[in-house]
Amino acid sequence: MITRLPTWVWLGAASLAMVAGMVNVVGYLGFEHQAITHLTGTTSLLGASLAHGDLRASTHLLLIVFAFVGGAVLSGAIIQDSTLRLGRRYGVALAIEAGLLVAAVPLFERQQIAGAALAAMACGLQNAMTATYSGALVRTSHLTGMFTDLGVFLGHRLRGVPAEPRRLWLCLAIIGGFLLGGIVGALLFPHLSYRTLYVPAALTGTAGLAYVAYRLHRGPAGTLSP
């Protein structure tokens, strides 16, 4: 049960959800109209493409899947733990994510699927980087789990079962951040096109610097769980 949430967890979760929302809407509005931040729909499309023998689409979709998983592998190699701890190398991971998003822009502009693959790798890295805190699952690149937790919380309250309100607010912060990112990305895309990705890249880089500064301010690394 979550009994305490440090400020950096609140700000980090909402900010990274906003980043994911912007990246995903760029994928939907782009030339492939492809989801980037999660793999559920991508896997369904892959199944349909394989069933119809569409080699080109299947290859592109497989590339997105492998890139997302590759980002998660990279995160695991850098952070080496699934529990949120002050002192983990999140700053390094966020810097790499920002670099991947920046590198994706020129590839997207040339309508190359490698642009979507780099963006998917960035999202896979981010999603693996934010894993668990005080026994609660924290994901920032998709909302299925957040909406599920929200429904469970409301169901518990309807039955009079004790429920932790901070979990509710964490879910709402992530959902709100993702939605806001989608709105901002959709408003910017007609003007900036794929250069819209520079905005989440800047946000990610800034979050990484803020984390490093906070970590240095707090001193030695330690578990933040209550």
From TrEMBL:
Pfam family, one: DUF1275
Source organism superkingdom: Bacteria
Key words, A-Z: Membrane, Transmembrane, Transmembrane helix
Coiled-coil stretches noted in the UniProt entry, renumbered to this chain: none
Transmembrane segment boundaries: 7-31, 60-79, 91-108, 114-138, 168-189, 195-214
Protein name: DUF1275 domain-containing protein
Species, as recorded: Lysobacter auxotrophicus
